[in-house]
C-alpha cells in the first residue's frame, strides 16, 4: 500500500487545499483514487481545530482565520513551513486512530533525527517538541521546550486528511497572534531557528527516507 506523493511548488490557498483534500478523500473511499501524501505550503493564515478556544486567538485581524474541522486548537500556517496532508486508509491500517497518530509522531521524530535533532512527545501537549537547555527556564522553573511540529487529523469514514506541519523557516513572529495549540508558556522554533541550514527540499527528502507509508514515486 504505497500512496502517491504530491508536491506543490507554490503556496496553496487554504480553501483550495481543503476542497482538493475532500475530493481526494471521497475518491479514495469510493475506490476511485490512490492514497496520497501532499507536501505544500500555505499563505500566512490561522486555522481553528474542533477544540479551539476563541480566547487563544489573540490577534484575529492579523491573518485570515479558517475553521479546519480537524482535531486540535489554533495553528498557524505560512511560507517556510512544510505542511504534509495525509489522505490514507486508516481502516486498512488497523482502525486505531491513536496508533495512527503515534505513527505520524514517530515519522516526524525520525525525519528530524536526519538533521541531528531530538524531537520529543509530551503528555498533554500535542505535537513534537525540542528541549531548549540553551534558553532560560520558564518562570516556574520548568525547562523550556519549543514546538517544532503540529499534528491534527480528521477522519472521513476511516480515511484521514489534514495532517502535519513542520517549521523549516517560517516567520516565527506570526505565531504571536495565537496561543499555538492552546499551550501557553513554551515557545515555537524551526529548523533554521535552531541553527540548521535546512531547506524545505531537504526536509522533503528526509520525509521520504523515513516515511512509514513508503516513499512512493516522485509524484508531482
Structure description:
With 220 residues, the protein is an alpha/beta fold. It has three helices and eleven strands, in the order βαβββββαβββββα. The strands form two sheets. Strands 1, 2, 6, 7, 8, 9, 10 and 11 form an eight-stranded mixed beta sheet that branches. α1 links the parallel β1 and β2. The longest helix is centred in the middle third of the chain and has 17 residues. The protein is globular, with a radius of gyration of 17 Å. The two termini are 19 Å apart. The relative contact order is 0.21. The model has no long low-confidence stretch (mean pLDDT 92).
Keywords:
220 residues; alpha/beta; 8-stranded mixed β-sheet; 3 helices; 28% strand; globular
Task: Write the SSE topology.
Elements: E1 4-7, H1 14-29, E2 36-40, E3 45-48, E4 64-67, E5 74-77, E6 81-87, H2 97-113, E7 120-122, E8 125-131, E9 145-156, E10 159-167, E11 187-188, H3 200-210
Parallel strand pairs: 1-2, 3-4, 9-11
Antiparallel strand pairs: 2-6, 3-5, 6-10, 7-8, 8-9, 9-10
Shape, principal axes of CA atoms: globular
Oligomer: single chain
Uncertain regions spanning at least 5 consecutive residues: none
Helical segment count = 3
- Describe the biggest sheet? 8 strands, mixed
Global Rg: 17 Å
Helix coverage percent of residues? Answer: 10-25%
Strand percentage, roughly? 25-35%
Can you give the mean pLDDT? 92
The helix/strand series, from N terminus to C terminus, equals EHEEEEEHEEEEEH
Total number of strands: 11
Distance N to C terminus: 19 Å
Determine the structural class based on helices, strands and strand pairing: alpha/beta
Amino acid at each position: 500500500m504505497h500512496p502517491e506523493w504530491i508536491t506543490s511548488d507554490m503556496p496553496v490557498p487554504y480553501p483550495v487545499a481543503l476542497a482538493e483534500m475532500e475530493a481526494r478523500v471521497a475518491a479514495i473511499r469510493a475506490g476511485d483514487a490512490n492514497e496520497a501524501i501532499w507536501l505544500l505550503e500555505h499563505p500566512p493564515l490561522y486555522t481553528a481545530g474542533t477544540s479551539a478556544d476563541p480566547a487563544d486567538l489573540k490577534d484575529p485581524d492579523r491573518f485570515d482565520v479558517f475553521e479546519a474541522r480537524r482535531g486540535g486548537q489554533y495553528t498557524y500556517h505560512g511560507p517556510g513551513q512544510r505542511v504534509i496532508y495525509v489522505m490514507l486508509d486508516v481502516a486498512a491500517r488497523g482502525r486505531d486512530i491513536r496508533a495512527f497518530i503515534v505513527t505520524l509522531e514517530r515519522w516526524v521524530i525520525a525525519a528530524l533525527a536526519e538533521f541531528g535533532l531530538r524531537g520529543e512527545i509530551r503528555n498533554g501537549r500535542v505535537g513534537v517538541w525540542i528541549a531548549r537547555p540553551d534558553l532560560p527556564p520558564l518562570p516556574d522553573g520548568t525547562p523550556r521546550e519549543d514546538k517544532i511540529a503540529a499534528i491534527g487529523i480528521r477522519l472521513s469514514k476511516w480515511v484521514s486528511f489534514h495532517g502535519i506541519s513542520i517549521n523549516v523557516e517560517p516567520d516565527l513572529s506570526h505565531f504571536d497572534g495565537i496561543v499555538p495549540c492552546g499551550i501557553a508558556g513554551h515557545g515555537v522554533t524551526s529548523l533554521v531557528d535552531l541553527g540548521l541550514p535546512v531547506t524545505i527540499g531537504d526536509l522533503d527528502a528526509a520525509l521520504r527516507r523515513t516515511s512509514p507509508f513508503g516513499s512512493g514515486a516522485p509524484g508531482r
